[in-house]
Design brief:
Layout: E1 23-24, E2 28-29, H1 36-45, E3 47-51, H2 56-70, E4 79-82, E5 102-106, H3 113-119, H4 122-132, E6 136-144, E7 154-157, E8 172-177, E9 188-190, E10 202-204, E11 208-210, H5 212-216, E12 222-224, E13 231-235, E14 240-242, E15 253-260, H6 268-275
Parallel strand pairs: 1-12, 2-3
Antiparallel strand pairs: 3-13, 4-5, 5-6, 6-15, 7-14, 8-13, 8-15, 9-12, 9-14, 10-11
The chain binds 2-oxoglutaric acid (AKG) and fe (ii) ion.
2-oxoglutaric acid binds near residues 144, 146, 154, 159 and 240.
Length: about 280
């Protein structure tokens, strides 16, 4: 059996105020509700929340296909990572019981038509194309499964800080709730309008993240609970984070990041000049 990969970052405690939101966002219902005014709202706030975005049978098909893959021997390039809290346990359970220890599953959607259908769901691609002002291309697919009781926090960050893409590249993230996401199991929390501040310095703290104090001093954070099949569409510069799943419910989600087709790549050094903290007059 191939050796299992564990999250290198330990679960650490954090200030619960980081995820205490001033408001809860009511999602739109269905892509028909995403009209020009709503796309304009995306530009102002940096995100949109849409319930009933993917049909229930598509979500079920996605979960089944993803689980089938997780239980298989994976081809090179696909990345399966377990929660660090699962170390010493997951190695000893039968394969089928591994699912609730998975933290991250990445670069897998091309392996099954049920997964591709989700990435290429026409109403989503249409909206993403309008937001990008270009033909979309999937840049990354990643499921974060935040298992009950152990799914760790994803500290505040901007997604572009992880991507070697030129400054100013429009990046649209689509985060899909496979299970219901609630404030108890680690739904998304956004800082509306934060994308207008451009690239923020990130630090190696509990993760590659925005400094906690920079987030704690900002008011207006919003929580985005969603039913299964709902999605969040957000700008690659919108600050966001999710709390630890301390509940006994699953909070599986998958995200696709879309960029304009043909966007060039930059080096990690160039990315660090944009999102790193060195050489800047900043502290954390
Ligand atoms: O699914 C989550 O908990 C947040 C994931 C996220 O923001 C990311 O991986 O960039
Ligand atoms: Fe993110």
């Amino acid at each position: 059996m191939a050796s299992l990969d564990f999250d290198a970052l330990k679960t650490e405690s954090y200030d619960p105020d980081l995820y205490r939101a001033d408001a809860v966002v009511e999602p739109l219902s269905g892509f028909d509700a995403v009209d020009s005014a709503k796309l304009e709202q995306y530009r102002t706030l940096g995100f949109l929340s849409v319930a009933n975005a993917y049909p229930p049978e598509m979500v079920r098909g996605f979960i089944e296909a993803m689980q089938d893959l997780i239980l298989m021997d994976l081809p090179p390039g696909v990345h399966l990572q377990f929660e660090s809290a699962a170390k010493g346990k997951v190695e000893h359970v039968p394969r089928e019981e591994r699912l609730d220890f998975v933290r991250k599953f990445m670069a897998f959607y091309h392996l099954d038509p049920r997964l591709i259908a989700m990435a290429e769901h026409p109403p989503v691609l249409e909206a993403v194309g309008r937001l990008l002002g270009a033909e979309p291309e999937v840049f990354q697919d990643m499921a974060l499964l935040k298992p009950p009781g152990i799914g760790r926090e994803k500290p505040w960050h901007q997604d572009h800080a992880y991507f070697n893409l030129p400054a100013g590249t429009p990046v649209v993230g689509v985060w899909i709730a496979l299970d219901e996401a609630t404030t108890e199991n680690g739904c998304m929390v956004f800082l509306p309008g934060g994308h207008h501040d451009g690239p923020l310095p990130h630090w190696n703290r509990r993760d590659w993240q925005i400094c906690d104090s920079d987030i704690l001093e900002r008011s207006g954070k919003v929580a985005c609970p969603l039913p299964s099949g709902g999605c969040l569409i957000f700008d690659g510069l919108t600050p966001h984070g999710t709390a630890t799943n301390t509940s006994n419910t699953r909070r599986r989600a998958v995200q696709f990041h879309y960029i304009p087709k043909g966007t060039p790549r930059i080096t990690t050094e160039e990315r660090m000049a944009l999102f790193g903290n060195e050489g800047r007059d900043v502290t954390c």
